UniProtKB/TrEMBL annotation:
<dbReference type="InterPro" id="IPR036291">
    <property type="entry name" value="NAD(P)-bd_dom_sf"/>
</dbReference>
<keyword id="KW-0560">Oxidoreductase</keyword>
<dbReference type="Pfam" id="PF00106">
    <property type="entry name" value="adh_short"/>
</dbReference>
<dbReference type="InterPro" id="IPR002347">
    <property type="entry name" value="SDR_fam"/>
</dbReference>
<dbReference type="GO" id="GO:0016491">
    <property type="term" value="F:oxidoreductase activity"/>
</dbReference>
<protein>
    <submittedName>
        <fullName>Sulfoquinovose 1-dehydrogenase</fullName>
        <ecNumber>1.1.1.390</ecNumber>
    </submittedName>
</protein>
Length: 232
């Protein structure tokens, strides 16, 4: 019997790799996608994983990647949207193109990816879409004006997808990440912070997997994730 296929868009050393490990561990065939494609070292960590170069802001790149995934692994049963763009700064520091790019990658890319994945899920009678979002989706601040706009638009796209696709047995879940993911570069940028400050990528992946495994009579759309000491 063929393994269910989990497509992860936006695979990097943090959440993306943690998601790939978790879904591979539960028996999924994992397609690891990033703008330039995952490194050989990343692919080598996960038995049977396949890597694809995929720019979520380019419709042709997305279609090419999804066609290749279907040919290599089979139809998509789970789509995990971890791709993102973040431009930091206020009204005086950013350009309209900065905001436009954050909306394009976070929201339009999600929409386009869903259009490519959902036909497989409909044919199978169900599926899962998990979107990795951010607390900025719920609040705009001066220095996050572009990022917050992109994430707010992304959350709205995800919610609309969930309300449309739920009756078709396609579960859409949105993770609100409220914290800084624990990465080497995060630690280097914040040397005054101890380990308890950072958000665990493995914990994010575990929460995503739990959403994907829920009983359909008790589905979650939105789930907040933050370090236990976060002042929210």
């Amino acid at each position: 019997m063929a393994k269910p296929v989990a497509v992860i868009l936006g695979v990097g050393p943090g959440n993306g790799m943690a998601l790939a490990r978790r879904f591979a561990a539960s028996g999924h065939a994992v397609a690891m996608c990033s703008r330039r494609g995952p490194s050989e070292a990343m692919l080598g960590e996960i038995a049977g994983a396949r890597g694809y170069a995929c720019d979520v802001s380019d419709a042709e790149s997305l279609k090419t990647a999804f066609d290749a995934i279907r040919g290599d692994l089979g139809p998509v049963s789970t789509l995990i949207y971890n791709a993102g763009s973040a431009h930091w700064g206020n009204l005086d520091a950013l350009t309209p193109d900065d905001l436009r790019m954050d909306v394009e990658v976070n929201a339009v890319g999600l929409f386009a990816s869903a259009q490519l994945a959902v036909p497989d899920m409909r044919a199978a009678g169900g599926g899962t879409i998990i979107v990795v979002g951010a607390g900025a989706a719920l609040r705009g601040r001066p220095g996050t004006i572009a990022f917050a706009a992109g994430k707010a638009a992304q959350r709205s796209v995800a919610q609309s997808l969930g309300r449309q696709l739920g009756p078709e047995n396609i579960h859409v879940g949105y993770l609100v990440l409220d914290g800084v993911v624990d990465l080497e570069r995060s630690r280097a940028a914040m040397p005054d912070k101890d380990a308890t400050f950072f958000l665990s990528a493995a914990g994010v992946a575990e929460a995503a997997h739990a959403l994907a495994s829920q009983d359909r009579q008790a589905w979650t759309f939105e789930l907040d994730l933050r370090p236990y000491g976060e002042n929210w």
